[in-house]
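Hi F.,

I've been meaning to write this up properly since the lab meeting, where we talked about keeping a consistent format for the predictions we share between groups. The idea is simple: the sequence comes first, exactly as it goes in, then the structure tokens exactly as they come out, then a line or two of notes. No screenshots and no reformatting. I'm using this chain as the first example so we have something concrete to point to.
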Amino acid sequence: MTKKLKSLPYLVIFLLFNSIVLGQSTLQYNLSVGDVFIIKQDANQLITQEIEGTTHEITNTLGGVMEFRVRAENEDTYDLDVLFKDLNLKMISSSQGELLNVSAKDYEENDIQSKIFNSLLNVPVQVTLARTGDILEVNGGDSLVSKMVNASGVKDEYSLNMMKKSLEKEFGSEALSNSYEQFTFLYPNSSVKVGDSWNNEYKGKMQAQNTWTLKEISEVSAAIEGNALVVMEVVEPASTMKLNGTQDSSVATDISTGFARKMTVTGLVEGFTSMSQMGDQEIPTKIKSTIIYELIEN
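Output, unedited:
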């Protein structure tokens, strides 16, 4: 009888420990070679600037479809091919009207922008993805930029170099890595339970210090919310934009694969833009943005 009583505390401890472990979940990507995921992205961005007492607004609208193909599974990472299946861009100025309106699928022989963006479709970029969603390496972005530049048909060397530098900021390997990561890098390095939080960081022209919290979990889905402090710095030959603010994310993920079923990101950053032709004058600048990623096929 005494022996049984002595063993009772150990049994209680074991049951408590087991209960704690069962309450924890490992959130990560679980992919198989040959898996294909189609992601739809819709983004709206409103840039507001106050120039000499006048409000100037630029509205940017982006719609795109990306395909993620799992090429190889390694011990701690996956090798993926990522392709643009469609990309639509529109830019409207409150003072100048429509500045840009291009659909990558609508190829027009006499339209340089059409030829440039059409050339990026269905060109695979190689990505190494950690199980947390961290993008460890991207290869092929620089070749993609060269393909876009060549597709333009422009012959002037100076214009070609300027075009290449501009496209590298959006479609070069480093830029693509930072862009993909904003959708994929969601998960912690260790198991978590509902209510737990973890941190990670996005880099690039938009840097974000993220805090993620697991809000709910079921057998099929996990609900994750994110809050971030954001710093944005965009340096162009004629202007420099320095902004900071916050960003909120709401994510519903697929437990079986780790891919987000739907992710909504809203942000607000404020600061100043300085332009070379205006000397040291700082133009108050504000950017409000909403981005929605949605898994439409897998």
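Notes:
The chain has one domain: 34-297.
The domain at 34-297 is CATH 2.30.230 (Lipovitellin-phosvitin complex; beta-sheet shell regions).

If this format works for you, I'll send the rest the same way.

G.
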